[in-house]
Structures are given as C-alpha cells and as structure tokens.
Amino acid sequence: MAPTLLPGLQDIAQLEPGDIAARATSYWDASPLQAAAVYLPRSTEEVSRILKACHAADQTIVVQGGRTGCAAGADSTGTDVAISLERMNRIERIDADAMTAEVEAGVILETLQNAAAERDLFLPLDLGARGSCTIGGNIATNAGGVNVIRYGMVRNLVLGLEAVLPDGRIVSSMQPMLKNNSGYDLKQLFIGTEGTIGIVTRAILRLEPAVAGHATALAALSSFEAVAALLRLSKARLGADLTSFELMWGAYYAAVSDGLGVRPPTPVGYDYYALIETECRDQEAGRDALVALFEEAIATGRIDDGVLAQSEKERREMWRIRDDFEPILRKKPVYLFDVSMGVAAMEGYVATARDLLSTAFPESEFHVFGHIGDGNLHLFVYPGQGPAALGAGTRREVERCVYEPLQSVNGSISAEHGIGREKKPWLGVTRSDTEIAVMKTLKRAFDPKNLLNPGVIFDL
Amino acid sequence: MAPTLLPGLQDIAQLEPGDIAARATSYWDASPLQAAAVYLPRSTEEVSRILKACHAADQTIVVQGGRTGCAAGADSTGTDVAISLERMNRIERIDADAMTAEVEAGVILETLQNAAAERDLFLPLDLGARGSCTIGGNIATNAGGVNVIRYGMVRNLVLGLEAVLPDGRIVSSMQPMLKNNSGYDLKQLFIGTEGTIGIVTRAILRLEPAVAGHATALAALSSFEAVAALLRLSKARLGADLTSFELMWGAYYAAVSDGLGVRPPTPVGYDYYALIETECRDQEAGRDALVALFEEAIATGRIDDGVLAQSEKERREMWRIRDDFEPILRKKPVYLFDVSMGVAAMEGYVATARDLLSTAFPESEFHVFGHIGDGNLHLFVYPGQGPAALGAGTRREVERCVYEPLQSVNGSISAEHGIGREKKPWLGVTRSDTEIAVMKTLKRAFDPKNLLNPGVIFDL
Predict the structure, then answer these.
(1) What is the count of residue pairs from A and B with beta carbons less than 8 Å apart?
(2) Which of A242, A342, B102, B106 is the right S-S partner for B88, CB 3.0 to 4.6 Å?
(3) Alpha carbons B314 and B264: distance in angstroms, whole number
(4) Whole-prediction pTM value?
(5) For A370, which residue in chain B has the nearest alpha carbon?
C-alpha cells in the first residue's frame, strides 16, 4: 500500500512504494527516486485537490514530467510529495483549420509531433529528449531546441494554458488566439518558471503547415569571422526558410566523427563546421537556394569547403555528427554546459574559457558546438582524470571556468536548460541582485509557504 | 514655474503649467491634459528618482508615451504626476551583425523603422500610429499591428528590457540573446501590463534582414467558409512568406471605397474581400507564388474574383481601403472595437453582434474588418443618432452588444489595444474571477500602494 500522507486523496492514484524505488531519479541520475509519495493525477481537478491538501499540510511538492531535464529541476527528496503528470497524456484536440493542438501536460513531445504530422501539420518544437520529455516540462522550462531560429522558444508556441497555483486554485487561460491583450498575460507566469509558481496541466499550442522538405548542407570554415559572415549571409539570403544554423568547433567534429566511426561529410582539420538547414515548400528550389548561398560564400572566401546532402540518408549522417555526442561522453566525468551570448562575443569567450580550463586542469578536454543562430553554445568539459583523483571541488572549479567569463560578455549561464537546482549557485553571474530579488518577490506572492518545487532556481 | 510637488527633483525637467494645458489628453480626446506635474526625464536614473520620490509621498503616477493608445491607458487626472518619456528618445545602437536595436523607450516607432531601413534592416512592427507611438508604449501594450501573422506581437521582438519598479528600483535585463532561461524572464512582467508593474525605459529589439519586396493581391469571396479555406490554403502555400491576411466585410469595402472616392480594385457587391500580402526575396517569384495561389483558389471555387497589384501604386491603393477608414468615422459617434476569437467562430459572432445591435439600435451601422490571420477583428458601430438623443447609456449598450457574445465563443475583448481604463468594466467577459484575482496579486506584489497607473486594467 502506498502511504496516505494527506487526507482526502485516497481516490487519486499513487505509485506503490516498491515502484517508486524502481524508478531512476532522472535520465542523468540512475539512483532510486526519492519521494514520500508519488501521485499520478488524471485531471486538473485532481492536481488541484493534491495541491490544496499539500497547502493545508505545509507539504512540499516536486512536479515531474519526463525527468529528462538537464538541471535537476525535477529531483525530489524523501520528504517531498512528487506529482507525476504521466497519466495526463491525452491529446484532447487537434484543430486542423485553426492549426492548434489542445493537450494535457503529460503528453510526450514525440507523440504530439507524430499526431500533428498525421494531420499534415507540424509542431515547431524539437529537441533530443523528444521521446521522453513532456509538453508540460517543455512549457515549464521554456524549451528551445533545433528550430528556435525560425519558430522561437516554447514561449512563442503557447496560445492557451491551464495551471494550478500552490494553493490549489486553477488558472485557466485556454484561449486559442494569437492575439489577446485582455489584461496581464498570465501564461507568462508559468512558462519558463520551472514549476515554481504553478503546475501546468493543459495547453493550446500553435501548429504550422507540414513542411514539404528540407535542404541541408555542411560548410567548413577557417575563422570565426567567416562563421559570423556566413550566418549573416544565410539570414539575408534564406530569410524565414532558415531553420538551423548549427556550429561545431573542429575538435568536436573530429572527435565525434572518429568516435562514431563515420566518414565525415567534409574532411576534418578545419576550425569550424556549420550545419545549415532550410525548410522548403519546393524541394528543388530549396536546394537551389542553398547551392546559390554556398557558391556566393565560396566566391567571397567565406567558406573553404562545403557539401550538400543529396538524400535523406546523407542529411541524417550530417545531423548525426551534430546530435550524437556519445563518443565525447565516454570519458568520465564529462560536464555539459548550455550558455548563450551575442555571436560577436563567442570566439573570445570560448578562448577565455579554454585558457582557464587548461590552466586549472592541464589534461582537460574541451568541446564546443552550438545553435549559434540563436546565441546558444553547448560546452563539454572532461577535466582529465577520474572524479576521485580530482576531489569533490572539481565540478565547482570547472563551472567557475565556464561561467565566470560570461559576466564580461553579458552572457547567460542557461540558454535553454533552465536553472533547476544544479545551476543555482551561479545565477548571480547572469542576474543582478535586483533581478533575483524581483524573482523572489514573484515567488512569494504566489507561494508564500515555499512548497512548490522549493529550492529550484533560488532558495528563498 | 512648474509646481514643485516632490522634494529633490528640482533638476529634472518639467512641463510648464501653460504647456500642460496646451497638450491634448490624447489622440482620441482633445480636452486639455490634466496633471499635477509632467516630468520629462532624460534617463532611467531620473525615472528612478521620480518614482522613489512619488513612492515616499504616496503620489500617483501616470506614464505617457505617444498618447495614441486606444483604451485611455495614459489619461492622467489633475492629481496625478505624469511622466512623459519623450526626451528619452535616443537610438543607442543598431548592431547590424547581431540584427538588434538598443533604444530608449521614448523613441517613435517610425523613427526606429527608418533607422533600421538605413542599415538594410527591418523592424517587424508596424501599426497605424507609427508616426506618434513610442517603443515604450508598444512594449507596455504588447502592440500587434499588420505583421503579427509572420512575426508575432511585440512580446516576440523584445530581447532585452530595462524598467523601473514603483519603488524606484531599476530592473535591468538588457541582454541581446534570443535564448536566455536563467531564472524567471522578468521582461514578461512589463510587456503588455500597460505600465502597471513598472515603467519601461530601455529595450533591445530584434531586427530582421530588409525585405526585398512585396506581392499583394485582393480577392473577392462569397462566403465565410470560402474565406477560411483561402486562409488555410494561403498558409499552406505561402508559409512564412505570408505577412498579412486582412479581411474586409463587403459593407466596409463599399463604404470606404465610395467615401474615399476611389475606384475599387475589384467590384463592390461581394460578401468579403481578402487583402493578402507576402514578402519576397525575389519579386518575380513572389508574384508567381501569389498568382499560383489565386489560380488554385479560383479553380477550386474558393474565390470569385481577384486582382494582383502590378505596381507599388496599386499596392498602396489596396492598402488604403483597408487602412483609411475615415469615411466610416464621419458619422458621429462611431465606436471602435478590437476583439479576437478563433477563425471558426467569426462568422457566427459577427452575425450575433449585428442582430443585437440592430435590435437595440434599429438605425445602427456596423462595419467589420480584421487581421483575421491572427484572429483579430476590428468593429465600427454607429448607433444611428447623435449621442445627446441616445443618452449617456448609449456607449455602454453598444459595448454590451459587442462584448457579451464573445463569452460563448471564448473570445477576447481586446486583441491588441489593451484594457486601459476604457475596457475595464468588461474584463470579466474574457477573464475568470481567478484570473483577475491573480492579476491583482501580481500588481499588489510590486505596487502595494497602487501608485503606478492606478485604475488601468482593474481597480484594486
């Protein structure tokens, strides 16, 4: 029997204690899930009842979606009640005329992508965890992913939203319009606030017409100046058709293609590799536009080598080098970072971080790729030895090398992964004391008892 | 000499009392501006000092930009201190590489549009008041306009923001990245909250590459079903190139073209007229795509007649019928409304509102057009007689006819104009009691004394 911590909730499904311990904490942490109870509500009303009971009992709550977040924002402890939205997984309606999807928060991203595709529509959100992450988690973390340059973050896709406040009140703003300036836009309280202000239970998302095809190409470049010039040229020539501009540093490209045992589409040895993709309503015209871009860029000395994907298979091979960084994760430990800054600051920032790391960790390895079209870099740092040899302060010291140089370039310690519990000590690098104080004012206004996802983003 | 209401602010510029009275209340209200004082700060620091002094003295404040808002949100009374940001009108930086503009809040929209164009860039915000409205006002009201279908509302264009809280604290989040999930996105507190949480003083906006050209066409249609089908087809065939899909009801089209004395591009007498515009990097290809769309739509019976603008002159003539509704305003009074709903609900909603109006006001005239690609309709109601004859309750009764039917279609009483002071009595049509209570919680958390734009959106 599951524990009965809270009165009046006996009819709401819970995990059995044995099933709690059989779950991993998260995708990143295989240790058994800790929680005083794990509720599995089937409706917004059940979520509301759970929160009312927790509120009355001063019980802390942690919200769980796909548990694939990168900042430990959904990690619960043995004294928390966890609420998993996994049974709120209905796609309530796809309106093909209005091009909207009305869903419960526990719907898996990929399930909704597929359901939209079946109606000849396209959900403009995609990220690596598509098979496990949920729409509610995507909204709570304002997820980014590979289409941001064209469609924006999740914030830009949410038309309507329903959420439950820490005191159990249901805030329902489930309207399907792109334009609605009737008072404060309350959706913004719940998008990207990592479940600290309320629990997202339902949403209406924008869909787009299905994309007929893609044109994809890889360019090799010898300087960051050439990268920045190619990005500008791509935006100017391809406009809204440009969906991805992904940059791999030379060492990343070499390490991944070597580690995967694939023949790299363009030779290793250049400083940078840009993966450029467009969506096109006419496949041939799309390819022609990309070829014309590359011809112009080669003629003006911006790129040294380039190749166009001639088939879906070749396209997937290009993306695999960008996506499948498993070879880099083979050495342990490897720390993953998600930072952002203006494109003009990137070259200097990466050089500074590399210098700091090689001084602090002479045997470190450092790999970089990013969605640079939207200012976002992902960094991988292997400090050079096993964690035991380096001691408990290793991670903190690596973080210092990566985060501190962001301050002088007005950068962000989290582009798309959020702050969660993991990045909390570094929030002050990106946010002023006043900004953090304002965040706390907002949190206290809606959760004065600090019961909902306590310790996420900041400690009160 | 201007009054010295507040200590310590003698060095901050004010309007002379005579100059206050020489100003109109707003574009819509020619009566003399009322205010205990009108401060003209030149910097965020001066705004902060004014707010600190007002906070200490329990003095109410009204923020003023271009004073062209449509909901009386900037109307001050004789006991308010007004703060006009007209002298904070510097374009601090246009970064052509990053495609961003860093500006003070008092910059006139058109000034920034032109400055971007000079750098071969494009500010994707445009609306009728471009020559007088300010960026700060655009942000505070989350302005919409004619490009929303392609670029979103202002919320989607703001990368960085600086604002001053009611207690004078400066919240500066002036980062230029598209992606920044480092804690709560505090910009959202100030975008679309109509100056009730803080005063926007500076911003960083996204720019886009300059648009090479436009293709524009007008279609005549015989049913709303055909309109909805054409909208879907346009989105599918034109994708991100579709920037405008403006619908005029037949009576509007006839009244405006007749009143302006222009020859209508397609004959009057149809039920609906859709003005469709795309932006194109290649003018000829853009026209070809629009012609192909019209051929397909005619072949499948979706449109009855259509014409493509063959020159910039013809394009302007088409837009003039959509933009220049002066003939409809000639009769007095005419009330303007700005509502939104799903496209599927529009036909029924307009019929219901028309029935209610003709029952309540047998001699009324009712005209409709809208940015229907984003769910937004603008309605003009002439109740049929002078206001004196109809009595003071006329406006309220017209509002009832227009707003009440929105409830059953899950619509909004304000798509893009905001609530201001004027629409406050009707907020409950669109928002639940819980939603309004949450808005008030937010307001109280930052402005417990209710000093900043009091009475805008709701009364505390």
Answers:
(1) 251
(2) B106
(3) 11
(4) 0.95
(5) B179
